[in-house]
Amino acid sequence: MIKMMRSARFVFFSACLGILLFGITLITLGSVAPAIQHKFHLDALSSGTLFSILPFGILGGSLVFGPIADRHGYKVILLFSCIAMFIGFQGIAYAASITILKVCVFFFGFGGGAINGATNALVSDISSENKAANLSILGVFFAVGALGMPFMLGLLEKHFSVQTIVSAIGYLTLLFAFLLLFVSFPKAKQLQGVSLARVFQLLKDDLLLFIAFFLFCQSGFEGIINNWTTIYLMDKSDIEISKALYALSLYVAGIAVTRVILGTVLKKISSKTVLMISIVILSVGTVVLHFGESYFISVTGLILIGAGIAAGFPVMLGLVGARYTDVSGTAFSVVISISLVGNIIVNYGMGILAQYYGIGHLTTLASALALVMFFFSIIIFRKLNSKTINPK
Known about the structure:
Blueprint: H1 2-31, H2 33-40, H3 44-72, H4 74-94, H5 98-126, H6 131-156, H7 162-180, H8 196-203, H9 206-237, H10 241-265, H11 271-291, H12 295-309, H13 312-323, H14 328-357, H15 362-386
Helix pairs in contact: 1-5, 1-6, 1-7, 3-4, 3-5, 3-14, 4-5, 4-7, 5-6, 5-13, 5-14, 6-10, 6-13, 9-10, 9-13, 9-14, 9-15, 10-12, 11-12, 11-15, 13-14
């Protein structure tokens, strides 16, 4: 029994390292954007086209990781993800043409998307109970990776070129792949593969779809806060970009700290209660951000938003893992892929809203998403109760 517990902890630690790499992946392209623009003489339109490849790569990785994990186990998909990310890191560092760079960015996103989905599904599978709590702790490592990349670049760029730093970080993915060779992962659950009939059964499951579209809204909410907050604050409060970026960092820190706390809270309080309280905090934060006249109040609103948004993914993915144990990887693929589509669509919609009606409507869209998430959560937990499934 002790040996099994130690083994599970080692697998969990491996998943944490993997999601940390995804956090680094998600922020790398934006962090090195000025260097890429200078190297290839890109204008704003060309840069936007390049950056748009990343989410589609992540979506592709999110679509395929589940069936592969269910059929072949987690080691195969994690090793493949590491190789894809390594190619991406080296391409971003040393690509000689814009075409090669675009291919490498896709590989970069593909590997990141697969490793994100696989690590979440893996933690769910090894957690016989307290799935949401363990997924919350996993999410902390994502935040560490996302926050750490800009810090690392700022610390090292005075001594090394951006290309050298990015390439060196890429070699960490190979080191991680080497460590994976010595990890004993759970056995594959569908040795004959996941049948199309089972996939269609999942796609017709109204509970899974409600969870997926809750995460569609949450991912869209996170996307517009990540991508539009700096512009919103600079327009509203007439502050410089460094202060706006600092405010955004505090939002991410709010997510990370709250997920650490949730790692304990979700073991004692039901997921339903935690999620409802979180949505209230999220809504209050949005109102504070909207009406805040000073920089300090706006930052307070962002921290509250970070605290409120932290529970959504761990709670919902925990529910998915508990209900669809036989095809957890494929089920995770479905909900995570739909959530990423939400990120893309809502961000595009925010762009249209900002262009025609002003950036001030960021909080209007955010409030609407929070309201929809609230109603979806009510429906989800009612359906869980009707199916006599414990949502904890």
